[in-house]
Amino acid sequence: MMQPDPSCSGGEGALAGSYTPIEPDRARKVLEQNFGLSGTLKRFDTEKDDTFRVKTGSGALFVLKIANPDEDHAELDFQNSILRHVQARDQNLPVPRVVSSGNGRDITTITDLDGQTRHVRVLTFLEGTPLCETNSDPAQRRQIGRILARLRLAMTGFTHPWQDRVYPWDVQHLLKFAHLLDEVEDPTQRDALAQGLERYRAIAPRVKGLRRQVLHNDFSKSNIVVDHGDPAFVKGIIDFGDSVNTAIAIDVATALLNQLPEQPHDDLFYRGRDVLEGYLERTDLTEEELALIPHLVMARVVVRALLTLWRAKLFPENERYIMRNTAQGWHQLDWFLAHTPDEISALLTQYSAPKG
Question: Where is the Aminoglycoside phosphotransferase domain positioned along the sequence (predicted)?
Fold first, then answer.
């Protein structure tokens, strides 16, 4: 059974939650008893829960999600409510649909073998290739930017009691997790992260003044499903588990982080600029947002290192998945620290809001 570190302070939530993974046979019974669905199950690698792809006898595809015991019912209702809101605002946006259980509820509850309460949901499965498993050209990356902008607009006006949770992956709270620096054993890495934290500390008051709303907050390559044969390219946006009320600039920065080159490059934003151009075709960013976005990308590099190094110690059996994107972050962080804050601020300021 996976055990959390009791010395960690509050706020890490289900990222530190202990649980015993549910076996596919047990998951299959949960699916049949609660949602009236049966089929073959394939487990997905995930950060903190049990997630399975379900293929029924008729070929229909669904996603079965059995939450971490530390995930609150309200948190999952928050995610489902976002999906319903987005569907109502932009029915053509490719997001999962919520599947109700046999008793008409979106979320059902089970007790696992350890006696822990686990909340269960089913969503439709969006077919395609995860962007992390393929490549993209500039035109396709502009499509990614357009779809992110559409998602922001579709989420406008959404409110929920859970929206203001303090979530570690939301970089507006980076300084709350500075204590994780103590978990970094390599002195060179620790020094680089300390410098990154100080860079963020300097801009934190400006971040507080940015426009904000409920946003996806994890527009990563693993959460974008694509099809090279489709002119729209993006076939699905998945995993709303990091959604939170945060700065618009943070949401964009997260998307650009996930376009940073895996190997050292003179311009870390050469792919992200394509995404930004597509985004600005659909909606606006202020001059202040454009100036802060590169700093927020760096902040996301820092928080990724802090959280993954800490969690890899907690859950060594899941280290491969947890650390899958961390190694490339060291050269990315070095690139940011090699440039002055003013140089970082100027990286994207040549862009402007869409005309008309």
Answer: 49-264
DSSP 8-state secondary structure symbol assigned to residue 177: G
- Please check whether residues 145 and 121 belong to one and the same domain: no
Measured CA to CA, the distance from residue 104 to residue 205 in angstroms comes to: 45
Percentage of the chain modeled with pLDDT above 70: 94
What order do you get walking across the sheet with 129-130 strand by strand? 129-130, 224-226, 234-237
Which of 125, 154, 183 is the endpoint of a domain?
Answer: 125
The Cα–Cα gap between 56 and 36 comes to: 11
Residues 79/167, Cβ–Cβ less than 8 Å: no
Which domain does 305 fall in, by range? 130-345
Q: Hey, which residues does 220 pair with through a beta bridge?
A: none
Contact between 65 and 152 under an 8 Å Cβ cutoff? The reply is: no
Look-up: residue for tokens 């907050």? 217
Considering the domain architecture, whether residues 190 and 50 belong to the same structural domain is answered as no
- Does 91 score more than 80 pLDDT? yes
pLDDT at 45: 85
Q: How many whole angstroms separate alpha carbon 44 and alpha carbon 323?
A: 16
Count of CB atoms situated within 10 Å of the CB of 119: 21
Would you give the DSSP letter of residue 355?
P
Tally of CA atoms within 13 A in the half-sphere of 283 that contains its CB: 16
* 272 confidence band (pLDDT: 50, 70, 90): very high
Q: Which two tokens stand for residue 120?
A: 């269960």
Q: Are residues 119 and 246 in the same domain?
A: no
CATH code at position 212? 3.90.1200.10
Q: Is the model more confident about 159 or about 45?
A: 159
236 DSSP assignment: E
For residue 105, count other CB atoms closer than 10 A to its CB: 12
| The two three-digit tokens of residue 169, written as one number | 């992956």
Indicate whether 7 pLDDT > 50. Answer: no
pLDDT above 70 (res 94): yes
